[in-house]
Amino acid sequence: MVAKMMTIRTTRLLLRPFEEADARRVAYLAGAYDVAKMCGRVPHPYTMASAYDFIDMTRRGHESGAEHAFAVTAPIDGLVGSCGVMRVGGEDSATYEIGYWFGISYWGLGFASETARALMGWAREKLGAKSFAAGHFFDNPASGNVLRKLGFAPCGKQDLFSLARQGSSPAERYIWPDGATGVSLSQ
């Protein structure tokens, strides 16, 4: 199912499609090693070419229905991060992996939980999502706090690959709702 891309409003933020004009800000925010190392698909160093590739990937992902990534913007600062979902477990699956990153200046402000909550609601309404999977590297306990705040339950440990780390690192995996069946941890 390809959902019509739209904007999602939260109390403080706007989630919208990425635009080419976002490339410089994406490269700056995601290019910080402390941000990149917490993500699976964010390289380090993060070049402008990487940012353009990411923005193009978000467009193609939405067009194909494979994944839906949003630019997260705040009224004064503009782009502050990204949040997205992608279907896991095949075309008939109603399980989506959720992921997010935010620039270092925006950590600890509640943006991740506010954004993820809104995105999950959108995915349930527009994509028919019934359950969600997520994970965080062990050295990113703040992300685990976000997931637990949203009602995710730990479901196991798994080594996950990170481009920035140039290897795999131990991670905690989560599911929502607690007790969801049919959630596969392997991708």
Quickly give the structural class.
alpha+beta
- DSSP summary, beta strand count: 8
Level-1 CATH class name: Alpha Beta
Strand content: 25-35%
Give the oligomeric state: single chain
**CATH fold group:** Aminopeptidase
Helix content: 25-40%
CATH architecture: 3-Layer(aba) Sandwich
Question: What's the average pLDDT?
Answer: 92
Specify the overall morphology.
globular
Domain count:
1
Strand order of the biggest β-sheet = 1-2-3-4-5-6-8-7
Q: CATH homologous superfamily - what is it?
A: Gcn5-related N-acetyltransferase (GNAT)
Q: What kind of sheet is the major sheet? A: 8 strands, mixed
Determine the number of helices (DSSP H or I, runs of at least 4 residues): 5
Radius of gyration: 15 Å
Uncertain spans: 181-187
Q: Could you state the order of secondary-structure elements as H and E?
A: EEHHHEEEHEHEE
Q: What order do the helices and strands come in, and which of them pair?
A:
Elements: E1 8-9, E2 14-16, H1 23-30, H2 33-36, H3 48-64, E3 67-74, E4 78-88, E5 95-102, H4 111-127, E6 131-137, H5 141-149, E7 153-162, E8 167-176
Parallel strand pairs: 5-6
Antiparallel strand pairs: 1-2, 2-3, 3-4, 4-5, 6-8, 7-8
Helix pairs in contact: 1-3
